[in-house]
Specification:
By secondary structure, the chain is an alpha+beta fold. 41% of the residues lie in helices and 14% in strands.
């Protein structure tokens, strides 16, 4: 029997496998990720584990309607600070 994936390996595989063509991330609810995570890890909390990986810089989480989107760090451009962007638009 093959060895179980770690949380990080599972999440990376899910993002790559479940994302729709043209998209770089997955919606945790609509993609089925949350349910698959709970089944694979026998009831483990996907929110806790994804938040841990995000704090470690191994995952990017963006809030969206109905849940969050998960991205691999290498697939996301660094976002400019929203305050800096507002000041730039204001010419300041």
């Amino acid at each position: 029997m093959s060895e179980r994936l770690s949380y990080e390996e599972f999440i990376r595989k899910a993002i790559v496998s479940l994302r729709k063509e043209g998209y770089k991330g997955i919606h945790t609810v609509y993609s089925g990720f949350n349910n698959a995570f709970k089944k694979y890890f026998e009831g483990a909390n996907p929110v806790e584990e994804t938040n841990k990986l995000a704090k470690e810089g191994k995952l990017i989480i963006r809030p969206v309607k109905g849940g969050v989107m998960l991205y691999l760090p290498e697939d996301v451009k660094p976002q400019m600070d929203i305050g800096d962007e507002a000041l730039k638009k204001m010419g300041l």
